Amino acid sequence: MAKLQLHNSLTRKKEVFEPINPPYVGMYVCGPTVSGESHLGHARPYITFDVVFRYLTQLGYHVRYVRNITDAGHFEEEGREAEDKISQKALLERLEPMELVQKYTNLYHWAMRQFNCLPPSIEPTATGHIIEQISMIRKIMDAGYAYEVNGSVYFDVKKYAEHYPYGILSGRKLDDLLETTRDLEGQEEKRNKVDFALWKKAPPEHIMRWKSPWGEGFPGWHIECSAMSSKYLGNQFDIHGGGMDLQFPHHECEIAQSTIALGEMPARYWMHNNMITINGRKMGKSYNNIIKLSEVFSGNHPLLERGYSPMTVRFFVLQTHYRSTLDFSNEGLQAAEKGFERLWSAYEVLKNLPESGADMPADKELDEQVTKLCRECEEFLNDDFNTAKVLANLFELVPIINSLKSGQIKTNNLQKKTFSLLKQTWKIYLEDILGLKKDTGSQDDKLAGVMDLLLSIRKDVRSKKDYATSDKIRDALNKVGITVKDEKDGGASWSAN
Ligand code: ZN
Q1: For the chain, which domains are there?
Q2: Interior angle at CA 88, CA 84 and CA 90, nearest 5
Q3: Separation of 318 CA from ligand 1 center, angstroms?
Q4: Per-residue pLDDT tens for 246-269?
Q5: Ligand 1 center–CA 227 separation, angstroms
Q6: 129 and 224 in contact (C-beta within 8 Å)?
């Protein structure tokens, strides 16, 4: 069996994947900040790492997949530090901060289910791990790499860089950072502007706050991932993943924290998915092109011609290798929708073809072609999760499947074992690993069509005073969870539970 190779952002090359303690694999992926709804940019890491999780499991590994929820009320971006997004949003929406956190966590879980992403093994929250974070900060202070000023604690990046390779992951150089990082208000207490907060003193208006050895405050963003990943996966684990935008400063800071507090690099393999663009533009507030996932599905956004189903989006994302850029456009999504429909209907056809084939194939060339296209799927995934090439091979098989159904290709042209390989390949790759499923969007459309028909028949029989048939239809629908309500104007509406 070919071994899985994955691109390690740390060494910047493809490496054969060797888990620390096989068959166990520890994987940590940075989850969302639940101060708002997930948008299109989030869809990519969600789907990418879901496929990584599914494929590792398929290879027989026991994967402990940890994906956190950032709910501690802070958020750090380059140049903008420790803004209390959750408290601000809570005030705006007149909600208790934890109520807001719950609301957006629920929405996030809903989006993940829409995409058919499997739940992680553990989903820890930052607010549930304040003690662990404080204890890690203390270790860093004891080692002399963090300092306290007025109730806040900062990591001493300059000192760290004197002894350790700061910038090892992102390739950034400390000297350049010292020159380019802007001086921001309220940061005078840091020894150096590149230092980052491990703990921040809470100003009086800050709602989310905890007691600490340095007074009341809240943890910095980076420390939560270091504290939670080491708690559930050990000091060093196999894979750390996230979007490319997290490489710096977030993951670089995680490396520095763990190196000092735990004595080693947190993860062996670092995987980062590339970013998405919308109509060729970077996604961002200034471009007014942030599309929330609920808007993608409903089509309720000025940049969208209409809504696109979660499976269309999933398919669209998987058609591009995760380390390439991906541009969202109406044309791209509509092409993906058609492509996915074509692929899925071939799969339905294949599922319904009876097991057949000959002991000796009548068409040796075709038999070899089908075998090759199926076998290559594994090679492609072993080559740094190349889902795009897997889908391309499945597409090549579509005309063959359709011809098998129409009889243009006789089933005895293939060997029995090739025939079952074909069936197996589609089930394993399309459903189990790529995680695609029948589009429920189109299923809903079909149900709506059937209901229109039934209600118009019911209207006809009622006009003929055939109330027995009318009631029969209503009662039968009721039994399968569909409620029919007669309107005053003689029409009827329905709802499915
Ligand atoms: Zn993280």
Answers
A1: 18-273 (3.40.50.620), 278-433 (1.10.730.10), 443-496 (no CATH)
A2: 120
A3: 23
A4: 999 999 999 999 999 999 999 999
A5: 10
A6: yes
